[in-house]
Specification:
Blueprint (H helix, E strand, L loop, with lengths): L2 H11 L4 E5 L5 H10 L3 E5 L3 H8 L10 H9 L3 E3 L10 E4 L14 H10 L8 E4 L7 H10 L11 E4 L18 E5 L2 H11 L6 E4 L2 H31 L4 H8 L23 H11 L5 H11 L1 H15 L8 E5 L14 H11 L3 E5 L23 H5 L3 E4 L8 H7 L3 E3 L11 E3 L1
Parallel strand pairs: 1-2, 1-4, 2-3, 4-5, 5-6, 7-8, 9-10, 9-11, 11-12, 12-13
Antiparallel strand pairs: 6-7
């Protein structure tokens, strides 16, 4: 029994609670819109002044989120701030910050720990803290719990600690924040109950699990499942290619089986904030227990080798046209990590661009979702998106179809490109100027 929990649950059920979203990116922004849209007052906290200023002006910086939705949230009382002291006004704090890998491919929890340290002076009785960032099992207990309790509060009685992994799929029209079931694990039963009360008004289905560790492991399993199966089909692609078989036709045929098979399609490598990163969170943590996750690490090796494989296909194609790779002009089509979005996190397209530049290639790109190459932590190109026209395509020795946006005119690309390296299986009919990669 906790009077703080009972009071918090009541406030959440009546929508009198104030929701704080910490980190206003691809996860935090849709979550803010959902809570604002159902009648909660929401305060957004971010360290990026530019994001905060844009939101307070009613502007969106994410392509698939319309500015009108931001304006509606502001009209409903939403405001963004860089001032972490505003956390005292909130009843629930949902942390949606990055969890990348460092250069040694080890978990970088600095965004999580720095965020909690910044919030630490403002934790109070009645607060609910929910971490949504993907991480290794034990993070909530090992990193958040001692910091939340540092001021003398007791988790489970005074404050409530939850892990609820994000499951956003940017650009997927079939799912939205509301319709994707939400995993919720609490540090105690009271924490779990408070977490259920937080998410139940906003999400159609809340799935309760027994602990934060189970919730953390669930998220990793979901993404490792994808990474391993994509690694498998990428390896199958190489074998099929040597045998003169179209792997995309094979996957399509296998997908007609109504049981026991889930189709995964090959590509130029893994991208996004989850699939290329999350498996290594588990492999790193497993070493603490004396375990070596060979299966996961092998799939990682296969997937990480794909950009080099694409470049090798380009080299072969240019060679057949009597052209050296060095000083060739190559256009990369699509630099977002997946189609129909502008999200470039961990995009294999960018790695392909870097591999080409190191080999003396004159690189350009075309991606209407990314008009200008953005500032990134590790990648730097002073480029803007090339217009896709018959004349411009003719200026390039080859184009690499890396991300298959629906807005591309694929017939025009085929008709006017000297050489197309197709990593996405868009051109199923054999053509003299198409090489599958």
């Amino acid at each position: 029994m906790s009077i703080h929990k009972d009071a918090l649950v009541k406030k959440l059920e009546s929508k009198e609670a104030v929701i704080g979203i910490v980190g206003l990116g691809y996860v935090g922004l849709p979550l803010m819109l959902r809570y604002s849209g159902i009648g909660f007052r929401v305060i957004g906290i971010d360290i990026d002044n530019a994001k905060v200023d844009a939101l307070n002006k009613g502007e969106s910086y994410i392509a698939h989120i319309a500015a009108s939705r931001i304006a509606n949230a502001i009209a409903s009382g939403f405001e963004a701030t860089v001032n972490f002291a505003r956390a005292t006004e909130c009843d629930a704090l949902i942390l949606c910050v990055p969890t990348p890998l460092n250069k040694y491919r080890e978990p970088d929890l600095s965004y999580v720990t720095n965020t909690v340290e910044a919030l630490k002076p403002y934790f109070r009785a009645g607060h609910l803290v929910s971490l949504e960032s993907t991480t290794y099992p034990g993070t909530t207990e090992e990193e958040l719990l001692p910091r939340v309790e540092a001021g003398g509060l007791t988790v489970g009685e005074d404050v409530f600690l939850v892990y609820s992994p994000e499951r956003e799929d940017p650009g997927n029209p079939d799912f939205e924040t509301r319709t994707i079931p939400k995993i919720v694990g609490g540090h105690t039963a009271n924490c779990r109950d408070a977490g259920e009360a937080l998410y139940k008004p906003a999400i159609d289905q809340v799935v309760l699990v027994s602990s934060t560790k189970v919730a953390e492991m669930t998220k990793l399993l979901e993404n490792i499942h994808r990474a391993v199966n994509i690694g498998l089909v990428n390896e199958m692609k190489i074998v099929a290619d040597r045998m003169g078989i179209d792997i995309f036709e094979v996957v399509d045929a296998a997908a007609t089986k109504p049981f026991g098979f889930t189709p995964y399609y090959p590509g130029p490598g893994l991208g996004g904030h989850c699939i290329p990163i999350d498996p290594f969170y588990l492999t790193w943590k497993a070493r603490e227990y004396g375990l070596h996750t060979r299966f996961i690490e092998l799939s990682g090796e296969v997937n990480q080798a794909m950009p080099e494989y694409v470049v090798s296909k380009l080299i072969n194609g240019l060679n057949e046209h009597g052209k050296a790779l060095k000083n060739s002009k190559v256009l990369v089509l699509g630099i977002a990590y997946k189609k129909n979005v502008g999200d470039m996190r961990e995009s294999p397209s960018v790695e392909i661009m870097e591999l080409l530049e190191k080999r003396g290639v004159i690189v350009g790109y075309s991606d209407p979702h990314v008009p200008h190459f953005p500032k990134m932590r590790e990648h730097h190109f002073a480029l803007s998106s090339e217009p896709l026209s018959s004349d411009n395509l003719a200026n390039f020795d080859a184009v690499i179809l890396a991300t298959d946006h629906d807005c591309f005119d694929y017939d025009m690309i085929l008709a006017h490109s000297r050489l197309v390296i197709d990593t996405r299986g868009k051109y199923r009919t054999p053509a003299q100027n198409v090489i599958k990669a």
